[in-house]
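hey so i finally got around to running both of the ones u sent me last week. sorry it took forever, my laptop kept dying halfway thru and i had to restart like 3 times lol. anyway pasting them below in the order u listed, first the sequence line then the structure token line for each. didnt double check formatting much so if smth looks off just lmk and ill redo it

first one:
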Amino acid sequence: MSIKNSQISQGSVLLSSPWIDDDTFAHTAIYLTRHDMSSSVGLILNRPTNSYLHHYVKDVPEGIPLYNGGPVSKDQLYFLHDASYLIPFSTHICGKIYWGGDFNQVKRILNMGMIDSSRIRFFLGYSGWDAHQMDREIQENSWLCYEGDFNPIATPPPNLYSQLLCGQDITDDIWDTAYLYPHIKKQ
């Protein structure tokens, strides 16, 4: 497992560079749900809200957390899951991970106990980039691509960003300007 400025694709996990100067994306881990010639779309994995799904949707079990997926369409609900066989019209992302699907069916299977928050994660809003914008930001070292197995549905630890950034083999070129940020240590 390593972090590099490499080719990204749908299903990649991106980490904001330690020196990014943007409150929205500082210290974020983003799961790319789409990356193609027209745009890139992702969900911030490590920004829990203080709200729960039942605060926004009627007739669902209490206690299912919501995450801030990004600054775009913050009034819309998005979800990742690993249960395409239970949720029709899901879009395959990568491996066992799917995005969206029939929300009425999601409500039914949540209420029936056929799926719980260990297999589905809900987000308000998403993060989006225009055509080639993400590629430019990668070249500018604004984002680092985490290369390794990662489950974007699992509840992230509070220190997910630092675990992924500092706990892995990071190529030296990423650290060229890290001296500007003494709180980030190369391991």
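and the second one:
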Amino acid sequence: MRKMRRSRAFKKERENNVIDIDDARKQRRKKRKEEKEKREEKQAKSEKGIASQRRRARGYRRRLIYFLIFALIVGVVTYTVWNLHTLRQREAKAQAELQVKQEEKERLELELENVESEESVEQEAREQLHMIRPGETVYILPPDETKKDETDADENSAEENNIDETQKNKSSESETENDKKEETT
């Protein structure tokens, strides 16, 4: 260490004062002790500060890790519950569709049985194709006033077809009667 320069006034004052060596030693020891205690306090405070900062940082990291683990668990549980919910909705929708398809299948099977019978084939031929059996006469009634506008064109063509068929039937009946008469003679 470098020696400090002292002023002249200090030197003169010192010369006038008588210094007791024992007192000076005690003062120096006391001063050194105080400085040493101050240094130790500073060092302890800094160590405590560093240690407490480390503890705080460690606690913060630990809490952060716990929070992330908790968030991950909540996320997985939420995803699983959502997945189950959507699967149950899909299952209910599929069950409803299955029910509808089974009902439609039963209806179509009954319709198929009806269509394959001779009675239904005959009924469809009469209604849609306007066919008649030999010897039958078809009477066409005038349509109602409310339905007349809607079905005028359809009925006119159907009437013409029916008239032609009845005339053909009559001519074929008369021919069969003539044939029978010729055979008997």
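quick thing i noticed on the 2nd:
The first helix runs from residue 8 to 16.
anyway thats it, ttyl
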